[in-house]
Amino acid sequence: MMPMSGELSLVLTFGTMVCLAILLFFLFRQPGSADPWKINRSAIKLGKRLGEGSFGEVYQGLYNNTPVAVKTLIPGTMDPRDFLKEAQIMKTMQHPNLIQLLAVCTEQPIYIITELMKNGSLLDYLKVRVGRLRLYDQIEMAAQVASGMDYLEMKNYIHRDLAARNVLVGENNVYKVADFGLARVLQATPMLSSQSKLYYIPVGKAIFPLRWTAPEAIANERFTIKCDVWSFGILLYEIMTYGKIPYPDLNNSQVKRMVPNGYRMPCPVDPYCSKDVYKIMLDCWKENKHDRPTFRSLKITLRNVRV
Ligand code: ACK
Question: Protein kinase domain location, by residue (predicted)?
């Protein structure tokens, strides 16, 4: 064997030490210490409870002395690693009609910290204003949601749970889409809150907001932005009916059987819904997903509805 020169052995020892240091860094680093928006729970002061979200409770809170909303996820709802991957993408989504993710706590229970919206969910907002909104206001809500969704569409991102309960209302008639991307990381058997059981039902190995979901997504468990367009049509129905549950006269098994066979909700009569708006709903519910409009065209069509 060739004797090793002093210089060579020095280089090898140094190399070994560097490798060891890298290995130790990856073994012992705090998960997420590289992401400044992953914060310690102590940075959040929880305030009053705002309500029960789909997969946990929502509180008002203070973060850096700024009022925020804190969504707490029931443990078991999603795998923290999957959630973190998704949150990384969610963090980059910035649009005036999308709820901004501010920070996350990734130990269980996971906290999702977002901007606070003073007027709560669109669903509740609609329900306490039955008969009191002008068509103009309703169209404005839908157009703003379409605008946020147009941005997601442009970013090749899919929401998967677009519904009035996931749109939030701020001051000065600002509407923002919340919870995009979360549905993707749901565990197959999440612990559903009692309220969520009204909306989400198990289909095969997954759970779906049945009444908001396009039939092809339920059949093959594959979501596309065109499924979001279908859900947007349902959301438009919720807006026009002041938050009625979709398919009010059908039970879940009837919805599952009849919608794929071509059944569509009729034009709401009480409260009255404009025929122009109903036509948009029907376009969103076209059987062939390629015949459904884009969010860009929905935004434009809504701006041109006669009010
Ligand atoms: O209608 P709400 O008061 O508005 O009750 C629901 C509840 O939490 C469960 O979703 C409220 N909520 C959720 N996210 C936010 C937020 N970012 N700002 C204000 N309220 C929120 C929602």
Answer: 44-307
Buried b (16+ CB within 10 A) or exposed e, 34-58: eeeebbeeeebeeeeebeebbbbbb
Could you say which of 52, 83, 115 is where a domain stops? 115
Binding-site residue set for ATP:
71, 165
Instruction: Give this prediction's pTM.
Output: 0.86
Together in a domain, 244 and 145: yes
Tell me which of 73, 94, 115 is where a domain ends: 115
What's the 168 CA to ligand 1 centre distance in angstroms? 7
| Candidate of 48, 54, 58 to mutate for ligand 1, largest count of ligand atoms within 8 Å of Cβ | 58
Q: Nearest C-alpha to atom 15 of ligand 1 is from which residue?
A: 69
Phi, psi dihedrals of residue 114, rounded to the nearest 5°: -130, 175
Contact 231, 281 (CB under 8 A): no
DSSP class of 186: B
Q: Is 161 a catalytic residue?
A: yes
| Same domain, yes or no: 85 and 127 | no
Q: For residue 270, what are the domain limits? A: 122-303
- The total number of structural domains in the chain stands at 2
Tokens of 221: 């468990």
pLDDT, tens only, 226-281:
999 999 999 999 999 999 999 999 999 999 999 999 999 999 998 889 999 999 99
Instruction: Give domain status of residue 144, yes or no.
Output: yes
Residues with CB under 6 A from ligand 1: 50-53, 58, 69, 99, 114, 116-117, 120-121, 124, 168, 178
